[in-house]
Amino acid sequence: MTIPKPNALPWLGLSVLVLALDQWSKAWVLKTLPEHVAVPVIDGFWNWYRTYNTGAAFSFLADAGGWQKWFFVILAFAISGLMVWMLGRTQRSDWRSAMPLALVVGGAVGNVIDRLQHGHVIDFVQWYVGEHYWPAFNIADAAVVGGAIGIALFGLLSGKPKRSGG
């Protein structure tokens, strides 16, 4: 009888941390920041800027008429389910695989909560240089992007071991 290796499901604790920070920050934003008014954090680079996104990244499908809310909710649950399944098949010590998956799950669920509770995602971090502005984002967005970059980067760097000749 073989003893199963511990899986990476405990990394979902990171997902819960991302989710908690995301929801706490959005509650702070709703209570503190005025809508659509830049509040400088670092002049010339960073503002707090409360805005809303009914679409996805860079407001993709924001003006689609409402159906996109359910599309993004279902998509986020499907992706999160896949990531949790992958965590269940990943060794606990494989942080290069587990951490990015957990970040994506936490971020995706954070934005789903916004869509279900408010009908849109609350964004509030605005970076810019001169007149060039990056689209506003939130902690959940940062976790999803960071996780996706980690999945791609660690996937490319891991490579497959070369077979010895024979």
Major beta-sheet overview: 4 strands, antiparallel
* Proportion of beta-strand residues: 5-15%
The unreliable regions are none
Q: What is the helix content?
A: 40-55%
- The secondary structure category is alpha+beta
The tally of strands reads 4
- Nearest-angstrom radius of gyration? 19 Å
Q: How do the SSEs run, as a string of H and E?
A: HEEHHEEH
Shape: elongated
Terminal CA distance reads 33 Å
Q: Tally the helices.
A: 4
Strand order of the largest sheet: 1-2-3-4
Mean pLDDT: 88
Summarize the structure.
The protein is an alpha+beta fold and 166 residues long.
Could you characterize the architecture of this molecule?
- By secondary structure, the protein is α+β, with helices and mostly antiparallel strands.
- It is built from 4 helices and 4 strands.
- The chain has helices at 12-32, 67-88, 95-118, 139-158, and strands at residues 39-42, 46-53, 121-129, 132-133.
- Strand 1 (39-42) and strand 2 form a beta hairpin.
- It is elongated and about 65 Å long.
